[in-house]
Amino acid sequence: MNIPKTSTPRIVIIGGGFAGISLAKKLSKKDVQVVMLDRHNYHTFQPLLYQVSTGALEPDSIAYPIRKILSQYRNFYFRLADVEEVLPEQKKVKTDIGELSYDYLVIATGSKTNYYGNQSIKENGMAMKTIPQSLNLRSLILENFEQALLTDSIDEQDMLMNFVIVGAGPTGVELAGALAEIKKGILPKDYPDLDTRRVQINLIQASDRVLQEMSPVASKKAEQFLEKLGVHVWKNVLVTGYDGETVSTKSDLSFKTATLIWSAGVMGATVKGMNAEDLIVKGNRIRVNQYNQVDGYEDIFAVGDIAAMSTEKFPDGHPMMAQPAIQQGKHLGINLERLLSNKPMKPFNYFDKGSMATIGRNKAVVDLPNFKFQGVFAWFVWMFIHLFFLIGFRNRMVVFINWAYNYIRFDREARLIIRPYKKST
Amino acid sequence: MNIPKTSTPRIVIIGGGFAGISLAKKLSKKDVQVVMLDRHNYHTFQPLLYQVSTGALEPDSIAYPIRKILSQYRNFYFRLADVEEVLPEQKKVKTDIGELSYDYLVIATGSKTNYYGNQSIKENGMAMKTIPQSLNLRSLILENFEQALLTDSIDEQDMLMNFVIVGAGPTGVELAGALAEIKKGILPKDYPDLDTRRVQINLIQASDRVLQEMSPVASKKAEQFLEKLGVHVWKNVLVTGYDGETVSTKSDLSFKTATLIWSAGVMGATVKGMNAEDLIVKGNRIRVNQYNQVDGYEDIFAVGDIAAMSTEKFPDGHPMMAQPAIQQGKHLGINLERLLSNKPMKPFNYFDKGSMATIGRNKAVVDLPNFKFQGVFAWFVWMFIHLFFLIGFRNRMVVFINWAYNYIRFDREARLIIRPYKKST
């Protein structure tokens, strides 16, 4: 890989997500060599992917070149690589561009879509965990309407204009709300020769409330917001399969649709190597101790979604969200420095800053540790926080302009089918 | 295609480029039915494609949904379709989504890359006429540097870091200048472990000057600007082939490169049908009379790049650029209205507003009919004009923000490999 061997310890970070980037930043100006490996050359701001799918934002504004983040620091190396295996005995990682030795290894590979073994959904459904996936979904949504124009069959039109979203976590709820706003604000203008009142948005949740990780009051209010926007919310419904036409459930209920979007779960994106059987716990995550050290290894750490640190409050590990990842990345940076200066590491403590979700224009729900609120103010808070956490001044400006424009004009202009989805498959 | 047959005449426009869109706008509020067919659902602002390839702009900011342009007008229909054949005897067009009858047909299909029959260049070279092509080029440029990091072979590195651009028209010149700026401002920061001083940009022109459609003073100044930026300009060099590694020329000169960008010519993007043999003239364009009427047809017109209207000043047709297309589209709108009210049509007169090209930061050349200037002021004029002609307020704002940011920070942040190019082929 052509990375010079120096006398300073080499820390290899796999993954440039929230955890990996905040760790890398923390290690800047320290006397270590840092090598970051990622299969993309950019960091993705995942909480806004649904806005790419629904034409509100360009993909480039929610992504940021990893090299640009790291270029300010000395002794940092980035390689565009797919990690194939960790070889702990040799202290090496095997990748598609060669092998690399490490002194310390940090696994920050994040999560991927969890289909819970359901092959039919994996094959026929759409996921939304990466920018290419979000762009595919954007293309598909628009292609559906173009196709609906061409048929006289009411059944076929209804199928094309029915969007079934499985999983009412933040992603599912935000996507359902955005689709409802498109139905109301954009479709009647763009498709005057189509009866877009017949567009359906069905949001299906296996448990008894939406946003079940949030407070009951947030769930209740979010559901009201969704219903106000015309989203059909189905609770206690377990989806069992999708053959490309029909979504089947455990009960008699079924849905005819050309588009199933699967946002019902994520699982750790593990790497091969180490003693996987013993280490992988619920959610396909790697068990770590309170220092984010992988069980049984002194020199391998895991942070973010992939890491399952069992605590009293979170016996199965912290929520798979941006905040724990950022905090663990930062904290590990401090611990690695302590380790290198032979100081004892400090246990990680999660500071829950709260959580939030936006349903639509002026409609959001926010749970702070001691204060819960919903509505217009929550929506502004949501926007402010998301702008703040976006990396890059230019991205913030461009996203802000887009949001301001969309707000004033009730519009979203990035509705371009740049890479057709159907034709390419 | 489910387009209602009304009593008003139906005008079918093939192509949503500059010519098609300006015609459609002119026909708004007229008592006609307008159907626009395009294989993309967006209009592309082609003059800025090179900025997408070089990471200065997002693709979404130089494209605009066609439905959004037309949604303000009544009696307008858009269909996402590939036109396969024109059947003039039946007054119909055949497309991949069915047949459509017309009362008047307007061919505004624009142009495509002209390889002059050179198969090796077509297969191994990159073109830059569409947004997907520009994104492929952006990915390839970045992938080359990632790959260069992985090899110890100086020869292979040099090949990966050598960019050969064939054709020094506006596209070639602007792309060469942008690459030179990336070499200077971005590569040393992004690739500190690569000797990016060895990056080469070779711009090859078959004739004896760059920008040969412009004035000699513009050509001379543009060449000086290019050389100042470190671009190697090769004149009177005829490229004969490219096998993926070596660019061969008519002389002994050859170039080892992983990237050949072909901007040496365009040709009309004709459609099948009509009496092609008699109608197609130099540049693969369709011969039209002074009313943009296709030779031999009362009810078929052609506008923009595809139309060859022979005039005293332009015996082979107007330049294949935005201005003639926009003017012909508008003019045909007036003529169609006259035709429908049984008034005689008016001949088209091209008003040459001048031409311009930008080479880099503070470096542009402008030829106005009575005034030619170069440098900083020309560069501001170039930016202002391009912002003005972009469709959509949001696009203008976003492009302006990006340009302002890039200007102040000497940066271009859209350097993301969203769809890998090499891996997908």
UniProtKB/TrEMBL annotation, chains A, B:
<keyword id="KW-0520">NAD</keyword>
<protein>
    <recommendedName>
        <fullName>NADH:ubiquinone reductase (non-electrogenic)</fullName>
        <ecNumber>1.6.5.9</ecNumber>
    </recommendedName>
</protein>
<keyword id="KW-0560">Oxidoreductase</keyword>
<dbReference type="InterPro" id="IPR023753">
    <property type="entry name" value="FAD/NAD-binding_dom"/>
</dbReference>
<keyword id="KW-0472">Membrane</keyword>
<keyword id="KW-0285">Flavoprotein</keyword>
<comment type="similarity">
    <text>Belongs to the NADH dehydrogenase family.</text>
</comment>
<feature type="domain" description="External alternative NADH-ubiquinone oxidoreductase-like C-terminal">
    <location>
        <begin position="353"/>
        <end position="407"/>
    </location>
</feature>
<keyword id="KW-0809">Transit peptide</keyword>
<dbReference type="GO" id="GO:0050136">
    <property type="term" value="F:NADH dehydrogenase (quinone) (non-electrogenic) activity"/>
</dbReference>
<dbReference type="InterPro" id="IPR036188">
    <property type="entry name" value="FAD/NAD-bd_sf"/>
</dbReference>
<dbReference type="Pfam" id="PF22366">
    <property type="entry name" value="NDH2_C"/>
</dbReference>
<dbReference type="InterPro" id="IPR045024">
    <property type="entry name" value="NDH-2"/>
</dbReference>
<keyword id="KW-0274">FAD</keyword>
<dbReference type="Pfam" id="PF07992">
    <property type="entry name" value="Pyr_redox_2"/>
</dbReference>
<dbReference type="InterPro" id="IPR054585">
    <property type="entry name" value="NDH2-like_C"/>
</dbReference>
<keyword id="KW-0812">Transmembrane</keyword>
<feature type="transmembrane region" description="Helical">
    <location>
        <begin position="376"/>
        <end position="393"/>
    </location>
</feature>
<keyword id="KW-1133">Transmembrane helix</keyword>
<feature type="domain" description="FAD/NAD(P)-binding">
    <location>
        <begin position="10"/>
        <end position="329"/>
    </location>
</feature>
